[in-house]
Amino acid sequence: MTTTVTASSGSHAEVDPGHPPTSTGLSNEKVAMWAFLGSECLLFGSLISTYLLFKGQSQPGTIGPDDVFDIPYTSVSSFVLLMSSLTMVLSLAAIQRGDHRLTRVWILTTALLGASFVAGQAYEFTVFVREGMNLRVNLFSSSFFVLTGFHGAHVTIGVLMLLSLYSLSMRGKLPTSKAETVELVGLYWHFVDVVWIVIFTLIYLIP
Amino acid sequence: MSGPTTRDEATGPVVEVPPEEGGTHHDHPGDWKYIKIALILAVITAVEVAFSYWEAVEGILAPSLIAMSILKFVMVVGYFMHLKFDSRLFRRLFVAGIALAIFCFTVMLTTFGVWSR
Asked: Is residue A14 included in any domain, yes or no?
């Protein structure tokens, strides 16, 4: 067992309440979450580079990005996801202050913004399919649907985690001492947001 | 200021953990700071979209969009994910993932001649 003590106290028996009792002085859960997010960079890196590799390789005459992308619509979706990062960080700040009502308000707002993004993506996919683009039409459509579909699945998982947090908070099972749980979900949520920042630029905006 | 020390009760050694490595809880920005950052992010997004329609910047479109995207990425990770204020270990874990991804996939795209198309 490992105990963290302050050097200034001069006594090893005194445990510093500000530090988790781990050998690094850091929360194991937070270290694990950052390691997980680091590994997720490789997953999304592979999907993005596959898209970049395949987007110009489709047979001439088949559907391409210029035929289907609706930049103003996707810009609004991007804005929604960006603002959900703000509400997420505000919920963390609220629980750290001990303001549980505001924590619930911001968590629910984040979940609703995330759900709006997913709904927007589902609508976008249906429009694309109606225009003749599906997973098997060409290399561009396959890599596009796999990349944005994986991202959408991540957002959906994030929304489910946020709703779980809301439920815990409503039942009084999310005290200020468990603010790190909100922080961990927040880290995941912000990561999903930064991945979209990259996707929006590389896939939608750069011709 | 001395950082926290760690003691393994089974073996007894005391190891000093530097403040930047340990769990020293730095002050996070306040709500207004977060709102200001979100506004800056929204403005950058609007500029990105405007650039994509602006024919005058066509020659520098891709580099400028990538630069703005990196700026947004760094702001979200630094402020909203608190990487600017948290332990260096978290930064190393995350940056290692990004660096590995960029390296692997740059090699892969170069191998397939994507840049020369």
From this structure: no
